[in-house]
Design a protein that fits this description.
Layout: H1 2-17, H2 33-39, E1 49-54, E2 70-75, E3 81-83, E4 86-93, E5 97-101, E6 108-111, H3 132-137, E7 141-148, H4 155-191, H5 197-213, E8 233-240, E9 245-252, E10 271-274, H6 284-287, E11 291-292, E12 300-306, E13 311-315, H7 321-330, H8 337-343, E14 351-356, E15 358-359, E16 365-366, H9 368-380, E17 385-388, H10 401-413, E18 416-420, E19 442-448, H11 450-457, H12 463-472, E20 479-480, E21 498-501, E22 503-507, E23 516-520, H13 522-542, H14 549-559, H15 565-568, H16 576-579, H17 586-595, E24 605-610, E25 620-622, E26 632-641, H18 651-663, E27 665-671, E28 677-678, E29 682-686, E30 690-696, E31 704-714, E32 724-732, E33 739-747, E34 752-758, E35 765-772, E36 789-797, E37 808-815, E38 820-826, E39 832-839, E40 850-859, E41 862-863, E42 868-871, E43 877-882, E44 888-904, E45 913-915, E46 926-927, E47 932-933, E48 935-945, E49 955-959, E50 974-981, E51 986-990, E52 997-998, E53 1004-1014, H19 1017-1021, E54 1028-1033, E55 1039-1041, E56 1043-1044, H20 1047-1052, E57 1060-1062, E58 1067-1072, E59 1089-1097, E60 1113-1118, ...
Parallel strand pairs: 1-14, 1-17, 2-14, 6-10, 17-18, 18-19, 19-21, 25-32, 42-60
Antiparallel strand pairs: 3-13, 4-5, 4-7, 5-6, 7-8, 8-9, 11-12, 12-13, 15-16, 19-20, 22-23, 24-26, 26-30, 27-29, 27-31, 28-30, 31-32, 33-40, 34-39, 35-38, 35-40, 36-37, 36-39, 41-43, 43-58, 44-54, 44-55, 44-57, 44-59, 45-48, 46-47, 48-53, 49-52, 49-54, 50-51, 50-53, 56-58, 59-60
């Protein structure tokens, strides 16, 4: 029965599919692009290539993997670059395989013998006289390099992979920990009552092992703990097959095994068999090859080669964004047609070229390097359309190196550049660069239709609203997204050119482990528009119609559909500042292109500028109260620039272009739809341009925003629409007042209400009160409508040469009936502030209207200095604060310093200017216009981090104020900081918008390498001595500043400033004292700057806001010289005995000391040792018992460069020195307490001599012990390995023998254990880390590797081995990592060993990473 019912219900379910709004999944109806393809199936984008400048595109993603959709993927940022300049000899073994022994990882690889052209790998020693091929045939070389997989992974993927690996790793940890716990339990049962020292050491060893096995990940990569996940390591093998460079990328195991379903990862084995691979991967565009890195990450990648195969570029995406963008523009699915209509991209026939400009190292942030390289590739590959769904707030419009290069790419090479307007609305002038600020880029706003709401967002629509849409056939609820950026640009240009659907469910990369995803933003509207442009270009190509950016932009704007109050149907007007020309209409644009195909004026780029205003703005934009209160005259210049699509022009072509310029003449008619703008009737326009005057009279306009455009038409053909337009925007602010009641505002979904506030004199902040005005019942319970409302509060002030982000406040608020919120917002007096309130576009459409009550209160006091400056020794600083606005009830000055900045100059060896590409043929860094090489300069900065000077700080921000904070508008192409430790290990990155870089705690050198790029070397020379500032946060160690009411109070340290009131119009003075010297951070240097904020007021009575200006006012303190160190006069010196020796004896001692000093210096300089030994033996002959001389000889033999071959000499030298020291005499001298009379000159002299003898004895015993253990280790390695088992004694027997050994007191013992016992009589080697090597060797001999790990880890964490410096063996970081790996291997902890092997490679690279 149930089955019957289910079957009966099933047909009705399927029949309802036809009523679902499926077209909203990947919308195309809004722009008529789907119908255009149905009417013109041959114009589906074929013969068109779209460049996706984004995070990268996954060529294996759903919708992008079929039909050779993605024809190239290019890494433009350099984040995937691998240095493969290291060459390795290869050998053909029995014609079965090529053998490669990696010098980087120690792995041996077997390569397919079919790669018989492997011998054609070039090396660094090839001569100039022979060809590359001739040289390569004689040699068998491959190139190798390594790359951390985590350096390639998007951040979201790192988190997922780490979690997967963590589970596998902890499984192994728990297994070994369980075994150790059993051993500990067994120990307790056997030895708990009266354990010997060795038995206690055994327990300590087990506990140390358990500590390692139970350690949790620190998530701090600077610590390089073996239990922290370094991620897979990729070894890259590159060879040349006679035609192409090819590579095999091998993911090396780091704890994972085949049992963990990672059969694509090479397990921990020394020989890796790759003979099953037919060939390596070559440049993606040649064979369209892509692979996944591992089964866990599922990250697809391709490759490219640069610099004659010395740089391997691994190309994979930095985020899902790029694949989604590509899917909107051009996804193709091999499905039935009705399904294709839903899931295909806008131009399914177009090809995709991925130009990755999102740098993985920076979390997918775009870089100048990536952007410029992308333009170079777009020109080289002759792309038709490029899409950039990225952008930033900019300080200037339509200027900067990238903007100029983009204009060249568009106007000289015919590329149509489409970009997102930005996601920073709803305030005006929030369009971002480059889309919203560039004249040669099509800027696209984001629109959401009812079907998109229903299908993409599963929103509920009321039946009434659905019926409204059916009746008039329009998008009854369509709107721009609330956050879609709004024009005009800050220079008055339009800002938003057109709009398109800004959301879709489409392709995402395979590593996300899903087919598709919903994303929204102007990032999505831009590729929709790019896809529409591709359809039109495809149609133009099929019909032989030349097309360029200027022609296309006119077609799109002159045929766009205005979505306004009349046809929106919901009372929400979309102004031209939101939608630009309107919704793009593909079919209408095609009709326009066809109708005007023979009109050459369509190709003209009409450049507009207001030439009687500073900065040559492109539009008229009046914001301030004074300028909207007068009639103004503007001189508008129109410069017609003829477009041509090829930079390589013949002389005949140039002549033709010049002729067209001479003959150009056009009669322009003007139209404007507002009577407050007066324009002339016409303008006779010639080449080089002309100006005309217009008058703007805003004096009678009501409060609010007013817009119009001055359209210029070809008077001979007005029907084809305007050739250009000049935007005019006027903002009329409300009347100036201290308190403004905006009143009750009614909002429908997505509606924006704008008010413009004239910030009164004396205001430093405002409190904006928003109350949900829905009524409540008498008993204070809510009405039946209790659904919370989403309101967006956005304020913005604009200032010259300042990006809007620096002076905006945006807040998303959810309010319930009757609920009130107060937001305190910093403002600056005398500058118009927009207050935009919007109801969120996605706010439940079932609640049609909502009311909000809005009130604004301006508050604050005015300091006579915006920023305070203090200098060391300057007696603090003072400021006059005045209350111009109202009575101020609570003047309570306070301040703190919370940032510490130190300036650095580049090192003397840095700053060389070099071309990045070795030749013009290497096109990656050569600008095509004029074949200009791009140059770089690399500046190096260094500073020391130590426990005494770091103040506990483990991070910093590299600041370069002259370069940072700008990107698209920057005069330079790019800058990138790479931060390293002293071992060249990368610690972090920073770019135009610097972020915090973590550095290791404790002592060590930090190196910063700054790359700056430009095509003009002279521009780089200007920065050869560029100062870089290190900014460190004094988190938890902020320095409070004391405020006083008078200078006298400050100097006398009287009670600080007490709370007081300040009547309107009155002022008072505040004095801030210098910070106390002992409060300043340790390690400060003269010239350092401490920065912070001061506040002058606090929350008064009945104020719900912050009660003071958010962010306060800046203050800076310049650090002076460090205080002089005063000697403690109370500490008495040892008495000095009178020297009763003869002058000859003194002279002989001085000569002997001079000889010893000379020998000490010679021991370091004499590489072969011949000069040293001759002089040493000569001096020794006359002074055989001189301890300093013997010590020099001992250290000479014990030098690391040759000690392994001189161990017996070391022992002999130690014995010789030990025999010269009477140890009984030393024991008697030091006695029990070691006391001596410091006032007795003879006693002091004796103590000094005994200290020298004791120090020499300890040195000799320690070095002898180390030499003996090395001799024993050598003997062990040369003997049968089974011998150790037969010689082993049980623990108690060993303890008994050690006690006997201690009793023998054999000074000249030749056994490590007994020698170490002698040493322990004089020094505690457990506490003195300078003798750590001996403790480590002792524990190794006893197989107590847990204790070895414990000590090694301690040394690593404490300054990476610096504590052993000055001892008998300085254990460097590399030495310690090697010891740790050995211990882990001996313990059988293969998972930890595998991680540790990766950390060793990561922590000690051979060279700095590539930029």
């Amino acid at each position: 029965r149930n089955n019957i019912n289910n079957n009966q219900r099933r047909p009705s379910t399927f029949s309802r599919m036809s009523t679902l709004p499926l077209s909203g999944i990947l919308p195309k109806e809004e722009t008529n692009s789907l119908q255009f393809i149905k009417d013109n199936p041959e114009y589906d984008g074929r013969e068109v290539k779209i460049g996706i400048l984004d995070t990268g595109v996954d060529p294996g993603a759903i919708g992008l993997r079929d039909n050779d959709k993605v024809v190239d993927i290019i890494e433009c940022t350099g984040s995937g670059d691998v240095d493969v300049s290291e060459t390795i000899n290869v050998t053909l073994v029995n014609s079965e395989y090529w053998e490669v022994n990696s010098t980087l990882t120690g792995k041996t690889y077997k390569l397919n013998p079919a790669w018989n052209e492997t011998s054609k790998i070039s090396n660094e020693n090839e001569t100039e006289t022979d060809t590359v091929e001739e040289q390569e045939e004689e040699k068998g070389f491959v190139r190798v390099g390594v790359k951390k997989a985590f350096e390639l992974y998007p951040r979201a993927l790192i988190s997922r992979v780490k979690e997967t690996r963590r589970k596998q790793f902890e499984k192994k940890q728990n297994h070994f920990a369980s075994m150790v716990r059993k051993e500990l339990s067994l120990w307790d049962s056997k030895y708990n009552k009266s354990p010997t020292q060795d038995q206690l050491k055994e327990k300590e060893d087990l506990e140390a092992r358990l500590d390692i096995l139970e350690s949790k990940s620190s998530n701090d990569p600077t610590k390089n703990n073996p239990w922290d996940d370094p991620g897979p390591l990729l070894e890259c093998i590159v060879y040349y097959d006679g035609t192409n460079y090819r590579t095999v990328i091998v993911p090396l195991s780091s704890s994972l095994s085949h049992d963990d379903n990672t059969d694509d990862v090479v397990d921990d084995q020394s020989v890796v068999d790759l003979t099953h691979l037919e060939k390596g991967m070559t440049d993606f565009d040649k064979e369209l090859q892509y692979e996944k890195l591992t089964n866990i990450d599922y990250l697809n990648y391709g490759v490219h080669f640069y610099n004659q195969g010395k740089i391997l570029s691994i190309v994979c995406d930095a985020g899902a964004h790029g694949s989604h963008v590509a899917g909107i523009a051009s996804a193709y699915h091999e499905n039935p047609e009705e399904v294709q209509d839903v899931v295909n991209g806008v131009a399914p026939g177009a090809k995709i070229v991925s130009l990755k400009i999102g740098d993985t190292r920076l979390g997918s942030m775009e870089t100048g390097t990536g952007l410029v390289r992308a333009l170079i590739e777009a020109i080289r590959l002759k792309l038709d359309v490029i899409n950039l769904s990225y952008g930033e707030a900019s300080a200037l419009c339509n200027t900067g190196r990238f903007m100029k290069l983009a204009e060249e790419a568009v106007q000289k090479y015919g590329i149509i550049f489409v970009s997102s307007a930005g996601n920073n609305g709803p305030c005006l002038s929030t369009v971002g660069a480059p889309g919203g600020t560039g004249s040669s880029i099509l800027s696209v706003g984001a629109y959401v239709s009812p079907k998109m709401m229903e299908a993409g967002y599963s929103m509920i629509t009321s039946e009434e609203e659905e019926e409204e849409g059916k009746e008039d056939g329009t998008n009854s609820l369509g709107t721009t997204y609330t956050w879609s950026s709004v024009g005009p640009a800050v220079d008055g240009d339009q800002g938003v050119d057109i709009m398109a659907p800004g959301g879709a469910i489409t392709s995402v990369p395979n590593w996300t482990l899903q087919r598709k995803k919903l994303m929204n933003g102007t990032s999505m509207s831009s590729p929709h528009a790019a896809g529409c442009v591709a359809l039109l270009v495809s149609a133009c190509k099929a019909n032989g119609i030349p097309v360029n950016f200027n022609r296309m932009k006119k077609a799109l704007q002159n045929t766009a559909l205005q979505v306004n109050h009349a046809n929106a149907g919901n009372g929400v007007s979309l102004s031209n500042l939101q939608q630009g020309a309107g919704m793009l209409q593909v079919d209408k644009a095609w009709e326009y292109l066809l109708a005007n195909k023979d009109d050459p004026t369509q190709d003209i780029n009409y450049v507009i500028s207001i030439d009687n205003r500073a900065g040559d703005p492109r539009g008229i934009y009046l914001r301030q109260k004074d300028e909207t209160s007068i009639i103004q005259e503007f001189s508008i210049n129109v410069d017609p620039q003829l477009s041509y699509n090829n930079n390589d022009l013949s002389d005949e072509d140039i002549g033709s272009i010049q002729k067209s310029k001479v003959e150009f003449e056009q009669n322009i008619s003007f139209k404007v739809d507002q009577d407050w703008v007066k324009v002339p009737k016409m303008l006779v326009l010639m080449n080089n341009g002309r100006s005309f005057k217009v008058f703007v009279d805003p004096t009678k306009l009501p409060k609010g925003v007013h817009t119009t455009r001055i359209f210029g038409y070809d008077s001979s053909n007005m029907e084809k629409g305007p050739l250009f337009s000049v935007p005019v925007t006027v903002l009329k602010p409300l009347d100036t007042a201290k308190s403004i009641s905006i009143g009750k505002l009614s909002f429908k979904p997505a509606e924006v209400k704008r008010n413009f506030l004239d910030v009164p004199k004396g205001a430093s902040y405002m409190d904006v009160t928003v109350k949900d005005a829905r009524s409540t019942s008498d008993d204070n319970t809510t009405t039946t409508d209790a659904i919370s409302r989403l309101v967006v509060l956005h304020t913005l002030q604009l200032f010259p040469h300042t990006p809007y982000r620096d002076n905006e406040k945006q807040r998303y608020i959810r309010l319930k009936p009757g609920e009130t919120t107060v937001t305190s917002i910093a403002v600056k007096e005398g500058v118009t502030c927009e207050l935009a309130l919007a109801r969120g576009w996605s706010d439940n459409v079932m609640t049609k209207q909502t009311d909000m009550e809005v009130h604004v209160d301006f508050r604050g006091i005015t300091p006579d200095k915006y920023q305070l400056n203090m200098f060391a020794g300057g007696g603090g600083t003072s400021v006059i604060v005045k209350s111009d606005l109202s009575n101020q009830y609570s003047i309570t000055p306070s301040g703190k310093l919370n940032k510490w900045l130190t300036p650095l100059r580049p090192t003397s060896t840095s700053g060389v200017i070099t071309p990045i590409s070795p030749s013009l043929e290497e096109e990656r860094d050569v600008w095509p216009v004029g074949a200009k090489k791009i140059y770089q300069t690399i500046l190096t900065y260094e500073f020391e981090q130590s426990p005494d000077t770091s103040a506990g700080i483990t991070s910093f921000v590299p600041r370069i104020p002259s370069l940072q904070g700008v990107l698209y508008e920057s005069a330079y192409e790019s800058q990138l900081c790479m931060v390293y430790d002293g071992n060249k290990r990368i610690l972090g990155y920073s770019d135009a918008f610097p972020s915090e870089v973590k550095i290791p705690a404790g002592k060590g050198k930090v190196i910063i390498r700054l790359q700056i790029r430009h095509s003009e070397p002279e521009m780089l020379k200007k920065l050869s001595d560029q100062v870089l500032w290190i900014q460190r946060n004094l988190s938890g160690k902020e320095i409070s500043l004391s405020a006083y009411a008078s200078k006298e109070d400050m100097m006398l340290k009287k009670p600080t400033f007490s709370r007081r009131g300040l009547l309107k119009g009155n002022s008072c003075m505040v004095f801030f004292a210098e910070p106390e010297e002992d409060k300043l951070p340790k390690g400060r240097k003269p010239g350092d700057i401490l920065m912070g904020q001061v506040h002058y007021e606090s929350n008064g009575p009945n104020l719900q806001g912050q009660g003071k200006k958010p962010g306060g006012y800046p203050i800076r303190y310049v650090v002076g010289p460090n205080p002089s160190t005063k000697k403690d006069s109370s500490s008495a010196k040892d008495a000095v005995a009178e020297d009763e020796r003869s002058e000859m004896e003194k002279l002989e001692e001085s000569i002997l000391k001079l000889k010893v000093d000379k020998l000490q210096k010679l021991s370091d300089e004499d590489k072969k040792g011949e000069k040293f030994m001759d002089l040493y033996n000569s001096v020794l002959k006359d002074h055989p018992s001189h301890i300093p001389l013997l010590l020099v000889g001992l250290k000479y033999h014990d030098q690391e460069r040759w000690r392994k071959n001189r161990l017996e000499d070391v022992v002999s030298a130690c014995d010789a020195l030990i025999s010269c020291i009477d140890q009984v005499e030393l024991v008697q001298h030091y006695g029990v307490t070691g006391f001596y009379d410091k006032e007795d000159a003879e006693a002091c002299k004796m103590r000094k001599e005994m200290d020298e003898k004791k120090s020499a004895l300890i040195e000799a015993l320690a070095r002898k012990s180390r030499a003996l253990v090395d001799i024993e280790n050598n003997d062990d390695s040369n003997n049968n390995p089974e011998k150790k088992e037969t010689d082993d004694m049980n623990t108690q027997e060993k303890a008994s023998e050690e006690e006997k050994s201690d009793d023998t007191d054999d000074k000249n013992s030749t056994n490590f254990k007994s020698s170490l016992s002698e040493l322990k009589k004089w020094v505690d080697i457990e506490k003195n880390l300078k003798y750590s090597i001996l403790v480590i060797e002792r524990e190794k001999k006893e197989s107590r590797y847990g204790n070895v790990l414990k000590l090694v880890q301690k040394l690593l964490e404490n300054n990476e081995g610096e504590d052993t410096k000055g001892g008998i063996c300085h254990l460097t970081k590399a030495d310690l990592l090697k010891l740790r790996a050995e211990a882990l291997k001996e313990l059988g902890y293969t998972h930890l060993y595998a991680y540790d092997e990766v950390w060793k490679l990561i922590c000690n690279p051979k060279d700095y990473a590539l930029f």
